[in-house]
């Protein structure tokens, strides 16, 4: 997968993201809960996709700037957010077109796991955040990797691909697995302090028939994504 592969299945991904269990009832509600009161805050949505999180943050009073490497995803976000939305095509692996200390918060939903190297991206996100600003992010839960890839080494940075059915279309996504300590080391090296690690349950309004019975444990939670709230030092 190249960084712009979402150009090839932007519509299918956006449709799946809109109402599917993992995004609509799990990931997005969790990010919004972690962000809490965002009224008046300047927020950068990194890897915004078709913009559902940007829209939800804006509806809660945030002033949102968004970017994605995929022009097709940014087009979808523009349709959702309107012509005057502050939207950019930009690559998180390269220098970002934003000023130092421009944002109170950065949200990065399900994007960092596409990147082999986190040092440059995290340094850039640190640069555009105000001192004390928050980076709120979600990634594939690293503990899921040894379950799905029992022959691979949990402790190694590893590239892997998986196929997904999105809106009836089969698409291949390529990820970079890294162990938990490599994530925390990268956060610390970029000048972030971990405030919260979250493994939340799905949203209470999830329709029961959407929940995978084999995955939901007694706590009502399931292994899927891992969430962090970081503070910029
Ligand atoms: C799983 S989607 C998540 C979209 C959105 N954050 C959400 O949760 O609805 C991942 C997004 O990350 C974007 N992406 C992947 N690599 C990127 C990069 N290097 N820079 C910016 N965006 C990237 C993809 O184009 C895609 O839109």
From TrEMBL:
Top-level taxonomic group: Bacteria
Keywords: Methyltransferase, S-adenosyl-L-methionine, Transferase
Gene Ontology MF terms in the entry: S-adenosylmethionine-dependent methyltransferase activity
One Pfam family this sequence matches: Methyltransf_11
Domain Methyltransferase type: 44-137
Matches recorded under Gene3D superfamilies: Vaccinia Virus protein VP39
Descriptive protein name: Methyltransferase
The keyword RNA-binding belongs to this UniProt entry's keyword annotation: no
High-level lineage: Bacteria, Bacillati, Actinomycetota, Actinomycetes, Micromonosporales
Keyword rRNA processing: no
Example GO BP: methylation
Ranges annotated as spanning the membrane: none
Signal peptide location: none
């Amino acid at each position: 997968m190249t960084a712009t592969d979402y150009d090839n299945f932007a519509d299918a991904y956006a449709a799946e993201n809109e109402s599917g269990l993992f995004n609509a009832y799990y990931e997005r509600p969790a990010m919004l809960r972690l962000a809490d009161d965002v009224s008046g805050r300047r927020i950068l949505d990194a890897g915004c996709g078709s913009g559902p999180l940007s829209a939800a943050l804006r509806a809660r009073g945030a002033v949102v700037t968004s970017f994605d490497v995929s022009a097709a995803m940014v087009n979808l976000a523009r349709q959702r957010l309107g012509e005057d939305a502050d939207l950019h095509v930009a690559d998180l692996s390269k220098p970002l077109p934003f000023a130092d200390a421009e944002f109170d918060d950065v949200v990065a939903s399900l994007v960092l796991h596409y990147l082999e190297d986190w040092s440059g991206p995290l340094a850039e996100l640190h640069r555009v955040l105000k001192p004390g600003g928050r980076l709120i992010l979600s990634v594939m839960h690293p503990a899921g990797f040894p379950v799905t890839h029992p022959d691979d080494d949990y402790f190694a940075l590893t590239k892997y691909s998986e196929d997904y059915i999105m809106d009836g279309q089969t698409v291949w996504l390529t990820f970079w697995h890294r162990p938990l300590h490599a994530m925390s080391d990268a956060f610390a090296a970029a000048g972030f302090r971990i405030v919260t690690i979250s493994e939340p349950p799905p949203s209470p309004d999830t329709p029961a028939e959407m929940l995978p019975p084999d995955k939901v444990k007694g706590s009502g939670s399931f292994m899927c994504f891992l969430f962090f709230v970081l503070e910029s030092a």
